[in-house]
Amino acid sequence: MGLLEGLVASRFSMFVSELExxxxxxxxxxxxxxxxxxxxxxxxxxxxxxxxxxIYEPYLEKLAAMSKMYDLVKIDxxxxxxxxxxxxxxxxxAIEVLEHLSKAAGYRLVKxxxxxxxxxxxxxxxTPNGFAQTHGRAAHLTHKSGWTIHxxxxxxxxVRGYGFxxxxxxxxxxxxVSNIDFAWTSLSRIIPSVSYGLEAWKKR
Length: 204
Known about the structure:
Number of strands: 7
Largest sheet: 7 strands, mixed
Oligomer: single chain
CATH topology: Rossmann fold
């Protein structure tokens, strides 16, 4: 399990233990192949009803063939609202998604995630710490915005850091950088300003 996956698993365990009315319905924004939803279901110890949103058709097609837990919707988050009723999910998550949206669309997404999350549920996201350049990537993988600790805290999130900040210059995640990532995270969780990425959550 990689650094991000381990971090997410730890936070999911906290959510599951604190959800007083139980965990049944989940929103997975930018679901890709559904790894986060399946991880959450594994931690919860039961199947979940998961609404998965993504703009990239091949992700949705592959996930539809792999999983019966996901109800999948193709959506452009730059323009479209989340197609769910108010307070209809226990957890709304967006793992490495905000940075792929414009700033205005990112703020709208956070509000939409809050809208569809029930009282007592959790809104959860991860994103790079500041703007992380992307070069030569497909359109759906390009970064359009950067998010800071201050911005996320102003939105009411608790924020922790993760990862080695110089990984951006390393041209990918080598074994050395990966090892430093894990070691550095102990510091960056206390001082998120020195981290590569940010983990943010709030209870509704």
